[in-house]
């Protein structure tokens, strides 16, 4: 399955409709709300909110499940402490103080991410305390260069990218369900478990090993047992590589997306502001 969607050039079209998902626990920062108002196009977009759930993976799973009940192609997940570029460079630079070049500050986050044609892609944003790197797998390696250069008009593959300002095509979500049925909506009372921590590789291998044993002709034979053992050993190995222990829900999702044929990307040109006790990154 291709992880790149062929799209026409130009503005957001009807075939590129987007649901903006808001996994907000408490109140959102006012700047996030204003940016959302700038981004929103009523004829091509809708919003969905999961409010008050302190477990962020639950909120993201609920929103993704609601998204798949619609006919929208894309879901932009926007956290309550993010301020993405929204088509107004002067406003963005004034309220964030980031002083990005006009081409970057004036981007529209939805149109920019969709135009990349990647099924899993996130904006560049930094941790919300001094000295933190950008939130993607190789961010620590790029921190000093990006802080010096500012936004770079470039989309890179990455092992994982933060989900604070994060675009997903519906095909990536359904591909994960197909690859890992135990995470699917069907197996979880209508709410998929794309972002939930679990040893998905091990569960997958145990299920396949059981099937291998149960479908062996006649009584269980040595060949079936050996096949089951190989499957379980492979599952243990993959689980050790992809274990969710210590992973954030953003990393866990990206691991599963990659395994399902939808590798994540990060847009180094789309910088979103991350609000903590100040607006980051401080340059």
Question: How does this structure look, described?
Answer:
With 283 residues, the protein is an alpha/beta fold. It folds into two domains: 14-179 and 248-280, Alpha-Beta Complex (Spore Coat Polysaccharide Biosynthesis Protein SpsA, Chain A); 199-242. It is 39% helix and 15% strand. It has helices at residues 30-39, 56-68, 89-96, 102-105, 109-115, 139-149, 170-179, 200-214, 222-242, 249-259; strands at residues 18-22, 45-49, 74-78, 82-83, 120-124, 155-157, 165-169, 265-271, 273-275, 279-280. A seven-stranded mixed β-sheet has the order 2-1-3-7-5-8-6, with helices on both faces. Strands 4-9-10 form a three-stranded antiparallel β-sheet. A hairpin with a 3-residue loop joins strand 9 (273-275) and strand 10 (279-280). Helix 8 (200-214) runs antiparallel to helix 9 (222-242). The longest helix has 21 residues, at 222-242. The chain is elongated, with a radius of gyration of 20 Å. The mean pLDDT is 87.
What order do the helices and strands come in, and which of them pair?
Elements (H helix, E strand, L loop, with lengths): L17 E5 L7 H10 L5 E5 L6 H13 L5 E5 L3 E2 L5 H8 L5 H4 L3 H7 L4 E5 L14 H11 L5 E3 L7 E5 H10 L20 H15 L7 H21 L6 H11 L5 E7 L1 E3 L3 E2 L3
What distinguishing features does this structure have?
10 helices, 10 strands, 283 residues, alpha/beta, Spore Coat Polysaccharide Biosynthesis Protein SpsA, Chain A, elongated, seven-stranded mixed β-sheet, 2 domains, 15% strand
């Amino acid at each position: 399955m291709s992880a790149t969607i062929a799209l026409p050039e130009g503005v957001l079209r009807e075939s590129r409709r987007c649901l903006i998902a808001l996994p907000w626990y408490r109140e959102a920062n006012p700047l996030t709300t204003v940016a959302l108002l700038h981004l929103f196009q009523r004829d091509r977009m809708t919003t969905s909110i999961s409010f008050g759930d302190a477990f962020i993976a639950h909120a993201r799973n609920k929103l993704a499940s609601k998204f798949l009940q619609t006919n929208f192609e894309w879901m932009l997940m926007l956290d309550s402490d993010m301020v993405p570029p929204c088509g107004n460079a002067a406003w963005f630079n004034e309220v964030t103080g980031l002083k990005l070049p006009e081409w970057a500050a004036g981007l529209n986050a939805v149109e920019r991410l969709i135009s990349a044609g990647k099924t899993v892609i996130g904006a560049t944003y930094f941790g919300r305390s001094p000295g933190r790197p950008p939130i993607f797998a190789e961010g620590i390696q790029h921190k000093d260069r990006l802080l010096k250069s500012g936004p770079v008009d470039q989309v890179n593959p990455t092992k994982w990218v933060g989900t604070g300002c994060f675009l997903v095509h519906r095909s990536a979500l359904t591909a994960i369900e197909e690859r890992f049925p135990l995470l699917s909506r069907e197996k979880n009372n209508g709410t998929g478990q794309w972002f939930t921590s679990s040893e998905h590789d091990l569960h997958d291998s145990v299920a396949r090993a059981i099937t291998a044993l149960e479908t062996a002709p006649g009584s269980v034979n040595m060949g079936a047992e050996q096949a089951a053992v190989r499957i379980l050993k492979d599952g243990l190995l993959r689980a050790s590589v992809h274990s969710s222990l210590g992973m954030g829900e953003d990393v866990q999702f990206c691991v599963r997306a990659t395994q399902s044929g939808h590798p994540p990307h990060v847009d180094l040109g789309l910088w979103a502001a991350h609000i903590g006790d100040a607006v980051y990154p401080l340059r």
